[in-house]
Give the backbone structure.
Amino acid sequence: MSSPLRRRAALVAGHLAGEATRRLGRGGGTALPGLVAGSLAPDLVENLASLPGHGLVTVTGTNGKTTTTHLLAEIARAAGMRPLTNRSGSNLERGLVTAYVDAAGADGAVSGAEDALGVLEVDEAVLPTVFVRLKPRAAVFLNLFRDQLDRYGEIDSVADGWARAIESAQPPPTLVLNADDPSVALLAERATGRVITFGIDDTTVALKAAEQASDARFCICGHRFTHDHIFVSHVGHWRCTACGRSRPTPDVAATRVHLDADGSDIEVRAGDEIATLRVPTAGLYSVTNVVAAIAAGLALDVPLATSVAAVSAAGPAFGRQERFAIEGRQVRVWLAKNPAGLNEIARALTAADRDLYLLAILNDGIQDGKDVSWIYDADIEHLAGRIAALTCSGARAEELALRFAIAGVQGVGGVEATTVTPHLHAALNDAIWRVPEGGTLDVVATYTAMIEVRGMLAERAGVAAYWEQAR
Amino acid sequence: MSEPIRVVPLYGDVMNVYADRGNLLAVQHRAAERGIEVVVLPASLGDPLPDGADLVLIGGGQDREQQRIASELAAHGARLRDWAAEGVAMLAVCGGFQLFGRWYRDGDGETLPGAGVFDVTTLASGPGQPRCVGDVLAASALADVGAVVGFENHGGRTYLGPEARPFAIVEFGWGNNGADGTEGAIYNAAIGTYLHGSVLPKNPRLLDHLLAAALTHRSGRQVELPALPSPVAERAHEAAAAVARQRGFPFLGLAR
């Protein structure tokens, strides 16, 4: 155990490291402060766990972590708590420690911790290594899809890690589980504490046909799942005809969902209470994130009305359907990092009844996944007939252009549909000028590409950099 | 061409963890460009094999998925070996390649029987052995194919038996086992490889090679495809090769 003095010194050092990176213009310092502080006092994670007076909630899953964390932080704020979160998807151990460094002042002291609630998004592969040490009061599990297999290895090993973490955590946290994802819902069998489930009851928004990238086809018992309705991948209303396991009836459910191009109008039932609200971001996955956050609020005894008001008023999380006004066009940024996410974005994009202008950016860094094969698992064929102009960019622009060509993307009105411009500044200009004035450019980007393009857009639109934004 | 070529994706809904369906999409797309008719006859768990095939595709899976199909696939082994012997074109990728070998010993020490199309055997990685992950650039043994590019991600180490020939020699990447420099295996018109996911889209000459082999099998006479450029795919090929040269690990072992 490091001494309180050593911890404080570590936090000060982390603070200085963050200042230095920001002043050098080397990014937001979301990782380095944690690395520096963590190396000086290795037990900062344990210490972080005992810091917030209202305890700590973890949010994990393949998709939706950042948005759900953001929404839950807004709920906490509305309920009179002070959310302590990690920023901008910085969800490895060093990112968690950076959250601690951020909470501490320049002198290494944390004030007002008694009002704080930790709301931390945790990388799905990192969760097993930090879960027991974080001692969360509640833990949200969103979904489990194939993602960055070059980094995570096989999907099954991620699920096993979650199950072991849940069994070892003391005292047992309240589990907030997605009823619609069998990989997540079946974690309830490992629970020793309270379980709250969330999901989508309205089957009118289910897919008409199954998608290619389905990741949990088989039940624990070994039999193939039957899906009465599918929302995305293997997520939906599932049951096993062999052992009788089936989707639990969610405690918090979206009972009515009406999707449009910019968001959705939904009805939420939590126990006997019913509320209606506008979800201000597009796509069915945004609805799932909202009900997940409301369910997590329930786990913290936040009244439904408080949660509903908070999520309705919340803006988009960083780089997740954020909008920028540039050259008389609206530019909207979508983060796509795996087949399930890209499928959901494709679906949300086609909900708009208009031609699409796209800038698609595929990078192959460690945070994007060095293996870009995953683009073949996404059903982007749905977009083919809808694209008026497409600019492909990023480190693997050529590969992306090939994927769209195989999907059958063709020009409309004799104009070449696809241009390939690896250099991002030029690609952004190309894409913007191909959109008619007053139109919308949708930018679909992998993680590092999103950070890069968002920086360019923010600069041109005069928006603050992400590390300067209020959390 | 009178009869459409019969493309059989095996266990496409189970063995598709690494985007292997990209290979089927590429076959369909390229065949359409060339005016070749294709009929797709998928066979998965519990299905009988179709009466005949000209091109068989199988992708990769996790241990759990491989265990699920192994015994059934092994039961199809005699048919598949006959098909391969009579010149049916095949592409078996990653886990599918392992199960098209003689046997695969998985992480639990369980030996899964293979279909025996290729004279290869595979051992799951031992404790402390890293997974073989990364970009690959390899020189294929096929004159009309040349360099192949892709990405590999496998724990298993595959070793060639006396009757197997390597599909390619690794320049950048791990290959079959990280030790002997070989990548994949060839038997007749059947190809096994660790290059997963988008191997056919970004290797247009390999794609044409398999299409020609499938047409040859279908028609019973040697078919050579007329030249037809695929500039988008060639550019993707070159870009992937550049990435492999830049960050792949150069293979320094002795190639056999």
In short: The longest helix of chain A spans residues 4-23.
